[in-house]
């Protein structure tokens, strides 16, 4: 009898999808080793040997459909694969799945049925055919009202993608904001979004700096208030000096154009991930072998 625990164990061993693991076990009367060979023979378990590789290249992309928009990051091991037509089609498929289904997590997306299999199984098969570890890292799905506008910008062919929603301003203004965010790397939309523990930690660091400069405690407190505002101007989109006009903040620029910024999502490929240390010549040779 093929049990759920057997299917789970085979999946962990091979990286194959749940359905493929179930089929393999059923075809081999529950024999684990035979099932592993069965998957290998069919090329399905090629993903297994790639599970511990580093996938920090890839693409960030955006798709807009009416009042809905989706932004994703999908990772590969090399930049060569990221430029591959099959990989780009995979990214586009994920965007369609997100837009067409009620999903809020990557697990939700992976469980969606796609042409008779799950999205997770589809990705496992793509690992086998493309030949690299692939990772569906993250996504955001945004819905706007009719009086709001999307602004999207993709930089360097998909290395950075930014999706912005503005209320009351035009798509052109929203795109300006998206381009600014791509260049200036804001971490948060506004001061209200910055977690309290992040603010308190920064204040503590700034106070220590002031005290180290020989300032009395009461003076150090006042200095912290001024310096924390500078901190906000560095990390918050609405507080940053607008790249096209340094005399106004991004928030003021949008306000001057009749609107306000509602959402901002910025994905930079590989951000925060461990990167492979490998030179270009070695990468080329790997592709040729």
Structural overview:
This protein is α+β, with helices and mostly antiparallel strands and 289 residues long. The chain folds into four domains: 4-50, Ubiquitin-associated (UBA) domain (Helicase, Ruva Protein, domain 3, Orthogonal Bundle); 53-143, 2-Layer Sandwich (Tetrahydropterin Synthase, Chain A), CATH 3.30.479; 147-186 and 247-272, Elongation factor Ts, dimerisation domain (Tetrahydropterin Synthase, Chain A, 2-Layer Sandwich); 191-246, Orthogonal Bundle (GTP Cyclohydrolase I, Chain A, domain 1). Helices cover 47% and strands 22% of the residues. It is built from twelve helices and ten strands. The chain has helices at residues 4-14, 18-27, 32-41, 79-82, 85-100, 106-111, 119-130, 171-184, 196-212, 217-235, 250-256, 280-288; strands at 57-65, 68-76, 113-114, 117-118, 135-143, 148-155, 160-167, 241-242, 245-249, 260-268. It has a three-stranded antiparallel β-sheet with strand order 1-2-5. It has a three-stranded antiparallel β-sheet with strand order 6-7-10. Helix 5 packs antiparallel against helix 7 (119-130) and helix 9 crosses helix 10. The mean pLDDT is 89.
Topology, element by element:
Blueprint: H1 4-14, H2 18-27, H3 32-41, E1 57-65, E2 68-76, H4 79-82, H5 85-100, H6 106-111, E3 113-114, E4 117-118, H7 119-130, E5 135-143, E6 148-155, E7 160-167, H8 171-184, H9 196-212, H10 217-235, E8 241-242, E9 245-249, H11 250-256, E10 260-268, H12 280-288
Antiparallel strand pairs: 1-2, 2-5, 3-4, 6-7, 7-10, 8-9
């Amino acid at each position: 009898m093929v049990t759920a625990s057997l299917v789970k164990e085979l999946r962990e061993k091979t990286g194959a999808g749940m359905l493929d693991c179930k089929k393999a076990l059923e075809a081999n009367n529950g024999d684990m080793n035979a099932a592993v060979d069965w998957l290998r023979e069919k090329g399905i378990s090629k993903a297994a040997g790639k599970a511990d590789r580093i996938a920090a290249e890839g693409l960030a992309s955006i798709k807009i459909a009416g009042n809905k928009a989706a932004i994703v990051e999908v990772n590969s091991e090399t930049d060569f694969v990221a430029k591959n037509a099959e990989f780009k089609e995979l990214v586009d498929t994920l965007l369609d799945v997100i837009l067409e289904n009620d999903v809020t997590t990557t697990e939700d997306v992976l469980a969606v049925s796609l042409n008779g299999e799950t999205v997770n199984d589809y990705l496992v098969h793509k690992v086998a055919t493309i030949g690299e570890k692939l990772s569906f890292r993250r996504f955001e799905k945004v819905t706007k009202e009719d009086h709001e506008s999307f602004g999207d910008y993709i930089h360097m062919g998909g290395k950075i993608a930014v999706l912005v929603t503005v209320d009351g301003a035009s798509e052109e203004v929203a795109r300006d904001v998206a381009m600014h965010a791509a260049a200036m790397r804001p971490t948060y939309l506004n001061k209200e979004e910055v977690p309290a523990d992040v603010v308190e930690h920064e204040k503590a660091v700034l106070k220590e700096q002031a005290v180290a400069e020989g300032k009395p405690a009461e003076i150090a407190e006042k200095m912290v208030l001024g310096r924390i505002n500078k901190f906000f101007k560095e990390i918050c989109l609405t507080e940053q000096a607008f790249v096209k006009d340094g005399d106004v903040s991004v928030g003021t620029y949008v306000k001057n154009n009749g609107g306000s910024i509602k959402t901002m999502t910025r994905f930079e490929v590989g951000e925060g991930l461990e990167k492979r240390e490998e030179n270009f010549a070695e990468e080329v040779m790997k592709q040729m072998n």
